[in-house]
Design a protein that fits this description.
Elements lengths: L20 H4 L1 H4 L1 H5 L16 E4 L18 H13 L2 E5 L5 H13 L3 E5 L1 H6 L1 E2 L2 E2 L1 H20 L3 E5 L9 H12 L8 E6 L6 H5 L14 E2 L4 E2 L2 H22 L3 E4 L6 H4 L2 H21 L3 E7 L2 E2 L13 H13 L4 E5 L15 E2 L10 H20 L3 E6 L11 E4 L4 E7 L4 E8 L6 E18 L4 E16 L4 E7 L1
Parallel strand pairs: 1-2, 1-13, 2-3, 3-6, 6-7, 7-10, 10-11, 11-13
Antiparallel strand pairs: 4-5, 8-9, 12-14, 15-17, 16-19, 17-18, 18-21, 19-20, 19-21
Helix pairs in contact: 4-5, 5-7, 8-10, 10-12, 13-14
Length: about 500
């Protein structure tokens, strides 16, 4: 059973009763006890990922015969790779492309000591027959013609395969067969599998893979935003149970090396409804984090590197600055995350010939850096320091009064609900506490009580990269979060 969730207590007799925001989430966060996964929890250090993945899209290449297509131009291709790498990208999820285009990207990526993953959606779907995957057809049309030559030419630089993004439930079994097909072929042995799940609040159309795919509104999963509470417990239970089974099937049947999800929290419907935002993030992060670690997979979260250009219908993506990205990353680490991916490499257009994009990405269609790229670079500066500081440490769990987990292995109590704590450590002589604010734009102050006296407590200065001593022979940490939405403390004997 996951650390933390075993401490929750679900008051079944009062489950119909709605409670206010600071206590509202406790009942729902206990749902994993009854409807989720019954997972063995691993406290091994696991693999923490250095650098990020980036999902690459076509940009100008989506326009037929465009002279500005980076897949056709070595100078443009090198510029794209260099700009993304400078923002922390080490693994490129390259777009669907012809073999000569993949070789162009591959040679640039190899020269820089980075790696790439090919996108398999279209070849996978072309190899489906009656809902089943045809390994022989895929081997002939894809492995022999493209994947094996790339593996022979680029070796470890061609690191793996990016399976279908956000697959519907009906294709999980076939994706498992694709995984078996790849791993049983000696010519492409050792390729890793990356797969990205739907977000927790996906609607029925998303699970079915229809044109009605989209996201549930807070009301549809039981949240009353105006009153700041969960008013329909059964709807929240159903959403979490459905997603838990979907994620478990992909983890068990596809057996990916990287289990990712994309839930973009910086949209109007969630920022105006903190109960919904915090419910979705903590549950989605916990489900993916617990699943992946219990099965030897690496949990990955997509960062919101997109922004709606002009508000139209729907729920536009707002500008997510470096503070937002750092906050999101701290939350994911707190709930067991181990790495990140970026979406999207380029601007997005409804039609390739549209003069203006509907959504900005990290780069423009002419391969120029956008304002979002500079925010990602700044955000990654802190992600890199967290990676270096937490590498090799096990995720021990989290502590949060609002989530009904008032104490952990290292932290014995929190003075208020304005912040939450992720615990990390190896052995009993050292530990790390990652503390983050409740929301990306909020501040927090209070005390973290420790379960024992620690001779030395240090805090990482993200500006200088140095550890500063902030306490000696103490059993408490005085927390103040304002200029940054997170803080990292190192405790040692």
């Amino acid at each position: 059973m996951p650390v933390g969730y075993g401490q929750l207590r679900l008051d079944v007799a009062n489950k119909e009763k709605a409670v206010r925001i600071k206590g509202v989430l406790r009942k729902v966060y206990g749902l994993l006890l009854g409807v989720c996964l019954a997972l063995p929890w691993s406290t091994s250090a696991g693999v923490m990922e250095e650098g990020t993945f980036a999902m690459m899209v076509g940009g100008a290449c989506d326009v037929p015969d465009s002279p500005n297509c980076y897949l056709q131009n070595p100078v443009r291709a090198a510029r794209v790779i260099d700009l993304l790498a400078d923002a922390g990208v080490t693994r490129f999820l390259v777009p669907s492309a012809e073999l000569h285009q993949l070789r162009l990207l591959g040679s640039i990526i190899q020269h820089r000591g980075l790696v790439f993953y090919t996108y398999e959606r279209w070849s996978f779907e072309a190899s489906l027959s009656g809902g089943r995957f045809d390994c022989a057809a895929y081997t002939s049309s894809r492995i022999n013609s493209t994947l094996a030559p790339l593996r022979e030419e680029f070796g470890a630089t061609f690191a793996g395969l990016h399976f279908k993004d956000e697959p519907p439930s009906a294709q999980i079994a076939a994706l498992g067969q694709l995984s078996e097909c790849i791993r049983g072929n000696g010519r492409v042995g050792g390729l890793k599998v990356f797969i990205n799940l739907l977000p927790l609040h996906a609607n029925a159309g998303s699970y079915a893979g229809t044109v009605h795919a989209g996201a549930l509104s807070p009301q549809e999963y039981g949240v009353d935003c105006q009153r700041g509470l969960i008013s329909n417990y059964e709807l929240s239970t159903s959403m979490i149970a459905t997603y838990s089974e979907y994620a478990r099937r992909i983890s068990d049947e596809v057996k990916p090396d990287y289990l990712a999800f994309d839930l973009y929290p910086f949209v109007g419907s969630l920022e105006s409804c903190p109960v919904a935002q915090h419910l979705l993030l903590s549950e989605n992060m916990s489900i993916v984090g617990n699943l992946a670690k219990s099965r030897g997979q690496v949990p990955i979260a997509y960062l919101q590197n997109i922004q709606t250009v002009q508000q139209q219908t729907g729920d536009p993506f707002r500008f997510a600055g470096f503070r937002d990205l750092r906050w999101f990353a701290a939350w994911f680490y707190t709930f067991g995350g181990r790495g990140f991916a970026n979406f999207a490499s380029h601007d997005l257009r409804t039609l390739p010939t549209d003069a203006q994009p509907h959504t900005w990405g990290l780069l423009s269609s002419s391969d120029q850096p956008t304002h979002l790229l500079s925010e990602q670079k700044s955000g990654f500066g802190v992600l890199w320091q967290l990676y270096r500081a937490l590498e090799g440490q096990a995720h021990l769990g989290f502590v949060d009064n609002a989530l009904g987990v008032p104490q952990g292995q290292v932290a014995g109590w929190l003075s208020n609900s304005d912040f939450l704590v992720g615990e990390f450590g190896v052995g009993s002589s050292s530990a790390s506490l990652l503390i983050s604010t409740r929301s990306s734009r909020s501040s927090a102050a209070g005390l973290v009580g420790l379960n024992k006296w620690w001779p030395i407590v240090e805090k990482l200065d993200f500006e200088t990269g140095r550890w500063n001593v902030v306490g000696r022979s103490t059993n408490a940490i005085n927390v103040s979060l304002d200029s940054e939405p997170l803080a990292l403390y190192r405790l040692s004997d």
